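DM from R.C. (forwarded with permission)

"hey, sorry to bug you on a friday — could you get me a structure for this? deadline for the figure draft is monday and I only need the backbone to look sensible"
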Amino acid sequence: VAITRYAKKQNITRAFSLNRMAVNLGFSIGPSMGGFLSNYSYDLLFYCNAAAALIAGIVFFTFFKGRKERNAAPIEENLPKEEVVKERNAYTDVKFLLFNLVCVFFSMAFFQILNTVPLFYKDVIHLSQTEIGLLMGFSGILIVVFEMLLIHTTEKRFTVTQLLVFGSFITSISFVLFTVNHTLGMLYFAIGLMSIGEMLVLPLMSTVTAFRAQKNNRGAYMGLNGISTAIAFIVSPFLGTHIATTYGFDTLWLITAVLLVAVAIGYYFFTKPLLPKNMQ
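My reply, with the result:
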């Protein structure tokens, strides 16, 4: 919500990407710092966490106090007047709910990277913990280094809908590659494609949400889009491990790839009605 209020409208997607980069950087640094501190004392770890949260709160308060909204007028200024005047309800906005459903399916597929993919590396390919850590770290490094550049370059050449469709297809291909061969080179290539798909789709999910929301219901819209991710966090580990255990990992990867193709089709049809014409 803060991004939609204070970032320039033409920078909304890049602002979400920058925020994701910060989060990914935190995810990369946090575990290693936690391990280092806990070696000395868990109390020290908790004190440092408390201090970091307090500092963040002070910085946020100082930064936003008295700051004037850049987008005091709704982002939807390019939409027809009847769309602007009528205050929508996020929870009864059928067009947005359909878009969110597609987001749930994308997140269910993509979040295999957090649960079944490491199991696949360990139990099927028999990689060491170090090799698994390097592969997963490679994805984080790609995102931190290249996401802003990728978004800056692509959003000038393609529409939001095109990027969501392309990102979903790219992610689909990455899962298919897991069934081709298991050389380290192929694994790095697959995780690289998956990271590109993530960099294209996840920030744009937030962008579409921001443009669909109105001045007084941004929190509801952003929260509802966040729920789509949360649902996937709950469902994805159970379904993924169940399919892998019952039918094998190759079946899981192919099902995931087909699901992502369906997601790409869903984005094509359900994203356009939510955006101004110049972004469709």
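R.C.: lifesaver. The two ends are 22 Å apart (CA to CA).
me: no worries. The mean pLDDT is 87.
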